[in-house]
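Long-time lurker. I teach an intro course on protein structure, and each term I like to show students one example going from raw sequence to a predicted 3D structure in token notation. This year I'd like something fresh instead of my usual example. Would anyone be willing to generate the tokens for the chain below so I can use it in lecture? Attribution to the forum is fine with me.
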Amino acid sequence: MIKTNGKSHCKDVRSRKTAAIILAAPLLVMDLFARGLVIAGTNYRSMYMYLPGILFMVMWIALFTGFCMFLPRLAGRITYAVIAVLTYIFFLCNIISYTYTGFCFSFTLMKMAGEGKNYIGGAIRASGPILCAVYFNVFLAILFAILAGFPEKRLSGKAFFGIAAGFLALHIVNPLLYGAKADELRWDAWRRPRNVYEAFNDKNKSLIISGLTEYTVRDFYLSFLKKEESIGSEDESFLTEAFSDKSLAESNDYTGIFRGKNVIFLQLEGIDDWLVTEETMPVLTALLKESLNFTNHYSFFNGGGSTFNSEFAVNTGYLTPLSYQRNAFTFNANAFPYSMPRLFQAEGYTVNAFHMNTEEYYSRGINYKAWGYDGYHGFLDRPGCNDILHRLDRTLILDEEFASMIFETGHPTVSYIITFTPHAPFVTTGNEVGTYLAEEKYGEPQNFDEEETAKLMGGETDRMIGLLLDKLRETGLYENTVIVGYADHYLYTIEDKDVIPRNKPDADTNLVNHTPFFIWSADVTPAEITKVNSQVDILPTVLNMMGIPYQKSTYIGSDIMSPGYKGFVFFPDTSVYDGRIYAENATIVKGSGTKEELTELLSQVNYLIKKNDLTLKYDWFREH
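-- Reply from a regular --
Happy to contribute to a lecture. Here you go:
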């Protein structure tokens, strides 16, 4: 036995250090392993994401171990056992959930525990022997720490309260290390770590940047403790009245004309109307002549990231809110029982989405799951799919894995295909895609300006449409398929600001958002539909043509083919256009009409904006 005070002190210090390491080890392993697994399975990277997450991990572990070592030995053992076992449970929940579904565990899932209990066995089996070995060894480490991880002498109160004070101070400061918060409506807000941490709507990214314990504690707080904004009586009365009409949308001459056919939603990245010419896009130009061609369609920029906003509108029938700042990709916790995929699934369809980008981009994976898709499939989520061919639209059709699902013949399908090639930058110099297409077409490098490069890229999308039609013929699906094609937005991403005015007559107003929209099937009688419409009108129009009933009050858009629909579009700055009147700031800028007509139009627009924004804000469909 060591008798001197100095030597006894040194022995005790070593003992406490050893105990702290033993106690911390299982918590450290669970945090690093859970985060590492999710990082390895995603394409989310940011220079700001690692340090704050590591600090959160160290802070929580120091607080837990310090508190347990501060308590009397038996109380410390019991407390540590509770903390470690709870952490272990959430570790298992996250790993099993992620390996089985692709998404981390959230306490919100406990609301669906009754539905999920039938899948627990399959979820655990999906872990495989390696992960099961990890589970077992982590449990042994926890057991060892409980039995052998406590020193003879407790941690002093001064030392523990110093740890606690440091934890509180760092917890306030640490989120600042995520970097600056982007404006909520920036297109790339979904990838900014500070936005991810504060919004906490993408669980995979949230766990990556926060670490297991911070993620679990924050998720619990937001799920159960944070006071949600309750709906006021005025807003509740408004929404109750807005959805009070339970009558189904009326039938018309186009009701059910495509009943039972496969559907391909073809969202055309950056295909502005001036690109659709015999020279640049001959296949699409010819297809428009064989289609229901909606010649007064507007795919307007709304919020941040207009590509995803169009996806949101077509799939849900709603828009990014106009009266408050909230991006479309942050509504994945909302209920969407009347989304496009859910209504088609009720008719026996499988519904899948196909794109180049990963499921992390715009948080598409979690959003498409929230909308009810059977799967979101991105090339960049697959190993070895990051070469130039996977940025060319043709690959969406030529890829065997994608083609096997898009051209499935055993049952009815909906395929949501998002093209990619006509994407900035729009010069061949320094643009790998532009250079590739130029060399392919001309046999040698070409230094094209933005306008010519955009035409080359549009030509690649046109080639993809041709391959799509060929594949439909080859698989025998040509007569049994509907193509719903539309642009996500006009080509606002082009940097040369002379290009758009040179090619579009209304470049100085929101009418610049005019883009192609068509519905094609081999047996459709071609027609030009001149009623003004926008993204929110696509879903109800398609549902009617497919013979899928829906309540007219469900969406903010309308069936374009309905005789009672006069047609109009409103833009984010509340400017409006109905085919005759174009008004900005409640003043007619182009066209003609009376003050009474404009007042009536603006009143209708204000009503729809309020309905749209409050429905999303209060997650109205979850309880109604």
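Some talking points for your students: The radius of gyration is 28 Å. The mean pLDDT is 91.
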